[in-house]
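Intended use. Records such as the Peroxisomal nicotinamide adenine dinucleotide carrier isoform C entry shown here are meant for training and evaluating sequence-to-structure methods. They are not intended to support clinical decisions.
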Amino acid sequence: MSDALINGLAGAGGGIIAQLITYPLQTVNTRQQTERDPKKDTRSQGALERMCQVVKEEGWERLYGGLMPSVVGTAASQGVYYYFYQIFRNKAEAAALQQKKMGVGDGSVGMLSSLVVAALSGCVNVLLTNPIWVVVTRMQTHRKESNRTPADQGLFVATEQPILSAVEPLPYGTSHVVSKVYIGDLE
């Protein structure tokens, strides 16, 4: 097995473990960053207080909304980054050794070369995994709205009968959000 593949798999595994441990905090953080409701209390809530609020109003499962695509995204992102980092690093080391043979430099990869290697790896990572993160953000910010009465959320006609009586908006499941990302119909 190549060093690049070993580093890619190690990065993916480490990323998955970290994601499983920190996911509820990430969900709350994403919600705090994307919340724009002027009717809500503007008092800043801490992460723990916000987690308790989500559990109370929407249930434990909402803290983990989007976990599966997030785990896939983290594994892909970390795996891609570390895989390409090792490939680019190997090329930089070969170039440094070639320069040493020509009498230029000491054969080691310098700071600037290391920075370029990391930047290139990061660019490849973002280009390949960005759609996954759009799905994750959509799933993290989707809210369960079960505390409303049907009269609060339906469209009414002259008879005051709700046309739409769903208690909760259409779910943002993984396949639903993926189709929205690639069709381009994101709200």
